[in-house]
Amino acid sequence: EKNKSNCHLTLAKVKDPERFGVPEIKDRRIVRIEEKPKQPKSQFAVSGIYIYDKSIFEAVNNIKPSARGELEISDAHQYLLDHGYKITYSEITGWWKDTGKPYDLLEANRLILDNMNEDIQGEIDRDSLVTGKVKIGAGSKIINSTIRGPVIIGQNTVIENSYIGPFTSIYDDCIIKNSEVEFSILLKECKIIDVDIRIEHSLLGNDVEIVKAGGRPATHRFLIGDQSRVEVL
């Protein structure tokens, strides 16, 4: 509003701008925005934080699907530029992480956990060891287990006879028994029971269940959707 802008974008400097929407900047003004260009005009990526006035509705209603068959937000921004609307920008000076790929989510999770504060609201029995920065939600129970932070555990989750290693986020109503988990994200109502190999670098959706099954070979990396069940061999 101060700059009488129709659209304000946040930009982040990246090593691989060809993966993003990329602005071309001249005299501190954005003159063009291109989605995933083969030859980027700058080292900046449009980070995904946008502020618009009502002109964006005009832009969205007039753009066409791209060669990829998608309506591109970069095309909406370019429409604004082509029709005389003003786009301003600011640069993100702290860390910023794109989460377009599974591993990016784990890395973003690591960055967030690395900067959180400790907060213990659940129960930890005398046979458990909790070290580092750890958050445990109300109603959760840690029984005969080791929790090595940074770790966040939601509400009404039970960790029993298990190890939870650094950079792990576990949401509400999960159960982990006789298992080990590290550098992973578990969403709501996940169950990991009697798995005798450590689960690392893994993303588990809602209501995922991993249990032990006999036989070989064994594996320990997962990318699992909602309401799935996996038996570990």
UniProtKB/TrEMBL annotation:
Coiled coil: none
Domain Nucleotidyl transferase intervals: 7-114
Domain of life according to the entry: Bacteria
Family annotation (Pfam families): NTP_transferase (PF00483)
InterPro entries to which the protein is assigned, alphabetical: NTP_transferase_dom (IPR005835), Nucleotide-diphossugar_trans (IPR029044)
Official protein name in the record: Glucose-1-phosphate thymidylyltransferase
